[in-house]
Design a protein that fits this description.
The chain is built from 5 helices and no strands.
């Protein structure tokens, strides 16, 4: 067991001890003693949070042969996509999976011609925007392959 894990368990045990003391002695304590125990429990919680954060701070930071190989392969393909491309991809998915189906459903349910025209206009606008986004992504992918 690592030192960090041991410290986490020590802090948890100490918090349990304080909680048991607080419960068993709650009737006998005056306000000052109660406030001291609560303060100490707060300090222990802060310490526990620190140890947990430090324990998991370095997860995934080691370099293995598999990580090195995949990093090289990704680099050959141009590396990580720019934020603009990632955002465009997310927006395409959002439009296709959520917004357009909702508009289609509303079109089927409406009897109002004005509402139907408004929904059709929204659908047309979204399709144009999606085409532009797909074109942006396709240009980036084409430039990446060359």
């Amino acid at each position: 067991m690592s030192r960090k894990t041991e410290n986490i368990f020590l802090e948890i045990n100490e918090l349990n001890r304080l909680q048991n003391n607080l419960e068993s002695m709650a009737k006998e304590l005056d306000n000052r003693e109660l406030m001291d125990i609560q303060f100490e429990m707060g300090q222990r919680l802060k310490s526990l949070k620190f140890w947990i954060e430090s324990l998991y701070l370095y997860n995934g930071k080691s370099t293995s042969n598999a990580k090195k190989t995949s990093s090289r392969e990704n680099g050959k393909l141009g590396g990580r996509p720019p934020k603009e491309i990632t955002a465009a991809r997310k927006e395409i998915v959002e439009i296709e999976k959520n917004i357009l189906p909702e508009i289609e459903h509303s079109l089927k349910m409406t009897d109002d011609l004005d509402e139907e025209e408004k929904l059709n206009q929204q659908k047309l606008t979204l399709n144009k925007k999606m085409d532009e986004l797909k074109e942006t992504v396709a240009k980036w992918q084409a430039a990446r392959i060359c």
